[in-house]
Design goal:
about 20% strand; five-stranded mixed sheet; two-stranded antiparallel sheet; alpha+beta; about 190 residues
């Protein structure tokens, strides 16, 4: 905060320190939320914008995306409002999008889209990476299981799965028609949220 006050607004230094400031605040919120969720399973439901959750996720990923010169394709649609915990859902989405980026080694394609289907909001994270073998689809949600050969903790998908289940939804993977993986998050949705 002190450094931000002494930097010229709009400068590269200002942007970097603003990012650090925002992410420090976000990390504090996230850690408290995850600790509370892991202790009690309690979820802080509130009416939340799906576009805002997606934009926050992409904002957090932005430094590595810029470094790798990689773009995530986001299929823009009308905003939808859901009753969920935006911090927890944002973390689950972040884990899945980051996994897809790593699966294509920041070189292939990663697409992010969503649609309302009946009483569900479906969020799709699609990549053209090597895909998940059929016999591993259930194992990927087990703690400490990883296909990243020494990289990562093997907890990202476990946490994401617990979060999605905790907010009353579901998470599963399918093989893409051509190649790669399609992760689908199903979130409860009601028209009365508008």
């Amino acid at each position: 905060q002190i450094l931000l006050k002494n930097l010229k607004e709009g400068s590269e230094e200002y942007k970097k320190f603003l990012y650090i400031y925002r992410e420090s605040f976000h990390m504090s919120q996230l850690i408290n939320t995850l600790l509370e969720f892991s202790r009690s399973g309690r979820v802080n439901f509130q009416i939340s914008s799906i576009k805002e959750i997606i934009n926050n996720c992409l904002f957090i990923l932005n430094p590595i995306l810029e470094e790798k010169n990689f773009k995530i394709e986001v299929k823009e649609k009308d905003d939808l409002y859901i009753k969920t915990d935006p911090i927890l859902l944002g973390q689950a989405l972040f884990n899945l999008v980051k996994n897809s980026c790593e699966a294509v080694n920041y070189r292939g394609k990663v697409k992010l889209s969503y649609e309302k289907k009946g009483d569900k909001l479906l969020i799709f994270i699609e990549d053209d990476g090597p895909g998940i073998e059929e016999d591993l689809k259930e194992k990927v949600f087990q703690p400490f299981f990883s296909t990243k050969l020494g990289r990562g903790t093997g907890l990202g998908l476990t946490i994401s799965y617990a979060i999605i289940k905790g907010i009353g939804g579901d998470l599963y993977f399918m093989k893409n028609q051509e190649k790669g993986t399609l992760a689908i998050m199903e979130i409860p949705y009601e028209d009365s949220y508008y």
